[in-house]
Structure formats: structure tokens, C-alpha cells
Amino acid sequence: MKENFKLDIRQRPRRLRKSAGILDLCQETRVLPSDLILPVFLKEGKSGAEAIPSMPMVSRHTIDSLMRVCEAALRRGVKGIAPFPMVDPAKKSLRADEALNANSLANRAIAAVKRNFPEMSIFADIALDPYTTHGHDGILDKDGRIINDETVEVLAAMALVAAQSGADFVAPSDMMDGRIGAIRDVLDDCDFSDTGIMAYSAKYASAFYGPFRDAIGSAPSAAKGNARRGGKGGRPKEGESGGKAKYLDKRSYQLNPANSREAVREALMDEAEGADIIMVKPAGPYLDIVAKVKDAVTLPVAAYQVSGEYAMILAAAQNGWIDLERAREESLLAIKRAGADMILTYFA
Ligand code: PBG
After folding, report:
1. Rounded CA separation 84/200 (Å)
2. Which is catalytic among the residues 203, 237, 292, 294?
3. Is 79 annotated as catalytic?
4. DSSP 219-230
5. Can you tell me the distance from the alpha carbon of 276 to that of 251, in angstroms, rounded to the nearest whole number?
6. Which of 74, 199, 241, 314 could pair with 275 in a Cys bridge, judged by C-beta atoms 3.0 to 4.6 Å apart?
7. Other CB atoms closer than 10 Å to residue 177's CB: what's the count?
8. How far, in Å, CA of 26 to CA of 289, rounded?
9. 136 closest CA partner among 279, 250, 254, 287
10. Residue 277 forms beta bridges with which residues?
11. Residue 246: its pLDDT value, please?
């Protein structure tokens, strides 16, 4: 190399990375506590929280310990929660009747949070899987296929009960056709015009939900239905597994991970049917979908960093393979940078 080697260039982007102060000034995206919604798992009983093995540092809470979670979250600036109940197997049924019980664990929790922390926004999960014996998000016909319209009728009734319990938003996570419009109609007819809908519009049939199904206890009963393997071609039957039998196969309603245009279609339909917030889920492996959906709709876009994304980061960090804080921050920044206005994350 020759002495005093000097490039003849005018553009030196590194000038903007010269110091921490300059880096800060040039930072395009930031994740704030107020961008986050905390998903929380619920269990019956009085005794305190209970660990979930596949989700280190995440617990199942009783309604009592949920109050402490809310207080801590609000103190740190997290202003939204999304409760998910672990339902007593004795209360599960083929038609998910417990989903309509105003006194269910989920609805009691919603009411308790609203009573004690009116400033906390509650996003109530609307789906039948915690309540069905088979673990699917809908009602099955005699051949084991999900009946769309009948399921939507139950979902709309479930949404109304959640709204009556005090939910600020109902969040249908089932992926049935037409549910957003049906829920909007029922809420409006019953004077809940101010209750919003956060639509899980682009929810993929993802392997990253594994730890969640453990957390709410929908996997074990569900696993039985996976014993028979599907024939080739055609629409997959509910309960048929493409691979290992531990988790339910939801490919007849959740989106195919290979598709992106279909996600945009679902988002536009939900926007037209009256959704208030559009969600993409999972988040990290679907950043292209977050970006496309953000371009296509005018509503705020949420992304759900799901249990498997969380568990992967935690597992690697616990092995000393990655730095937990930095990986957490980077994973959330990437989701926000892709276009998410808000993020559901267990890191909240
Ligand atoms: C089901 C539901 C799932 C999640 C939220 N609601 C899992 C599924 O579709 O089986 C997953 C969330 C997560 O993995 O963190 N209605």
C-alpha cells in the first residue's frame, strides 16, 4: 500500500456514526414501553404465579398476581395487556360453551383489571381454542372440519361478553372468514360502539406457537387428534399433522407461510369489515408481511412477537450464545422498523 493512502470520496457515511450523540440523533426507529402490549397467561386459584418451562421468565398468573403484573407494567410505561387463560379441562367442550361465560377466568380477569387499573388497555383474545376439547379455534362438523359460520356466531357472542366484562378491544385470533364484520355488528347492536377490534388479520400456520400451546394447556389434548396422518393433496383435515404429532395443524384456517399476497387480502378485508387495528403474526420471521400490510392499509398495524420467537432468544441467551438484552432490543427494533406501530411481546 502506498504511503498516506487517501480515497478520493466525498460520501463518508461513517461521519454519522462518529459518536454516541450523533448516532442517537440519526436513529430512525425507537422502541418505547408505550409501543408494547404484554400478553399474560392466566390460571385459576389463589396461590401465586407458576413458571412455564418452555418460556423462561414468563409465568402463569392468578387474578391476584395479575394485579401486581399490571401495576409493574404501568409503572414502566407499558399500557396494554392481552390476557390468555389456561382453562380447566373439565370446562372444555366441543362447542366451547365456557367461552361465553361472563364468569370465566378470562372475563373475571378483564373485569378485575378494569376495576383496579382503568388506565390499562385490555385486548381480549377472541378464539375458541382454550375452550374446545380438541384445541381447534372453531366448531367441528362430524367429519372433523371446522364450520366457519357457526364458529363466527359463537365468536361474536364471545366478543360481546368480553366487551361487557370491560375489554377495550376484542382481538379475534381465529382466522375464520367474516368474523370482523359479524363482531362489529353485534358490538354496535348492543351499544358497544366504543369497543375496538384488533384483528389478527395475517395469522400464519406457524411452528413458532409451540410454547404458547404449552402455556395455555391446549397442546396435550390437541396432540391426540394428530395421530392420523393426512392423505396427499386437497385441503388438510383439521387435526392432521404435516409432521411430528405434538402440535395441532391449523392450516385450513391460518395462513400458509409461503404466501404474502393472501396476507394483504386478509388485511384489506378486515379493514373493510370494520377492524380498528390490523395485526401480523408471528412478527420476526414475517417482517416482509408487516411492511406490505403497512403499505396496504391506513389503520395502525400491530405485530405479535410470538412465544417461539421469545423462547429461541431466551434459550440461546441462557446458553450464553447471544446477549439477551441486545438480542431482545434488536428483535423489537426490527419489527418496528418493518412498520409495526405496536408490538405484542413477552419482553414487555
Ligand atoms: C390461538 C392463539 C395462538 C396464539 C395466540 N392465540 C396459538 C395458535 O394459533 O395455536 C399464539 C401466541 C404465541 O405463540 O405467543 N387462538
Report:
1. 15
2. 203
3. no
4. HHHHHHTTSSBP
5. 26
6. 199
7. 14
8. 26
9. 250
10. 198
11. 66
The C-alpha cell that represents 194 in the structure block? 366504543
Which of 250, 281, 292, 294 does the annotation list as catalytic? 281
CB 340 within 8 A of CB 302: yes
Catalytic residue status for 281: yes
Cell numbers for 288: 416482509
Q: How many CA atoms lie within 13 A of 134 on its CB side?
A: 19
Q: Is the pLDDT of residue 9 over 90?
A: yes
**Phi/psi of residue 156, nearest 5 degrees:** -65, -40
Segment 266-291, tens digit of pLDDT: 999 999 999 999 999 999 999 999 99
- The full DSSP string for 156-169 is HHHHHHHHHHT-SE
Cα–Cα distance for residue pair 85/19, rounded to 1 Å: 47
| CB-side neighbour CA atoms (13 Å) of 285 | 18
Residue type for position 174:
D
- Looking at residues 320-346, what average pLDDT do you find? 98
**In angstroms, what is the span from residue 209 Cα to ligand 1's centroid?**
6
Average pLDDT along the chain: 92
Residues sharing a CB contact under 8 Å with residue 324, sequence separation 6 or more, in sequence order: 313, 314, 317
Is the pLDDT at 236 greater than 70? The verdict is no
